[in-house]
Amino acid sequence: MKSNIGNDAIIIDKVTHTYKTDTGLLPVIKNLNMTVPKNGFTAVVGPSGCGKSTLTKLISGLLKPDYGEVYLNGEKVIGPKSIVGMAFQNPVLLEWRSILKNVMLPLEIVPNDLSEVDKEDRAKSLLHLVGLEGFEEKKPSELSGGMRQRASLCRALVHNPEVLILDEPFGALDAFTREDLWQVMHKLRREEPFTGILITHDLRESIFLADEVVVLSGRPATNQYSLQIPKLKNPKLDNLFSPDSIEMLKNLRKQIEIAQVQQATN
After folding, report:
1. Of 34, 109, 211, 251, which shows the fewest CB atoms inside 10 Å?
2. In a domain, 239, yes or no
3. Into how many domains does the chain fold?
4. What is the residue range of 230's domain?
5. Would residue 186 be called left, alpha or beta, if left means φ above 0 and alpha means ψ between -120 and 50 degrees?
6. What's the pTM?
């Protein structure tokens, strides 16, 4: 079913979702609206437990909203879609497969016309792009945490998804590795265009990677605040220390504090 409400790649239209628990109903998301333009990148932040990960499941089709609609590239989401790639905090690589075979896994699942040689070439090109050339035949346990996360990003992108969902993919990494992977993400956006949603607790990460940062309110989550991030041709980590970046971080921290207070009183 095609949507006529816009040409954005991702549209969240008045979405509400509630979980059934042993103690009753738990409202998680209420009347949430959000759009992400084609090849845009939006970071979503908010208090812990406010519904950010639930949002990713709604976008990917793993959950259906109680009310409202989700659209990807104009089509209503009614179940999991092959145009979506996902990466999580835990890379969940299969130890009995090489890094190359781990990256190729989606090509064994998502219908495609690639030959085995083409599939391998596609996976190798991504591994080269993220600095893992020469590690194709290693097992996951032979790689560092940052290297495994690079491989996870390659796996999420190998089938050329139109939408990439990142659920705190760098949250378990040390600060230096995390910042290195932020720069890898900018490289991937240039070389492998996609529409992105990033769930993160790291406000610095949100303004460095995203075009827009959306702050969710305390649970049940709805729109609280939106911040447009000025686009830089060649983003550098030093940009995070600029007066503009410091001011943006102050604004976001204030909004998070407001959301935390709201969630604590609900």
Report:
1. 109
2. yes
3. 1
4. 1-81+211-266
5. alpha
6. 0.90
Residue 131 lies in a domain: no
Residue 91 lies in a domain: no
Q: What is the pLDDT of residue 266?
A: 67
The reply to whether omega before 80 is within 30° of 0 (cis) is no
**Quick check: is 144 in a domain?**
no
pLDDT > 80? residue 2:
no
User: What CATH number did the domain enclosing 244 receive?
Assistant: 3.40.50
pLDDT band at 242 (very low <50, low <70, confident <90, very high): very high
Distances in whole angstroms, Cα of residue 216 to Cα of each of 28, 53, 77, 213, 260: 11, 12, 22, 10, 10
**Are 19 and 65 within 8 A, CB to CB?**
no
Q: SS3 for 231? A: coil
Does residue 162 surpass a pLDDT of 60?
yes
Q: Are 45 and 66 in contact (CB under 8 A)?
A: no
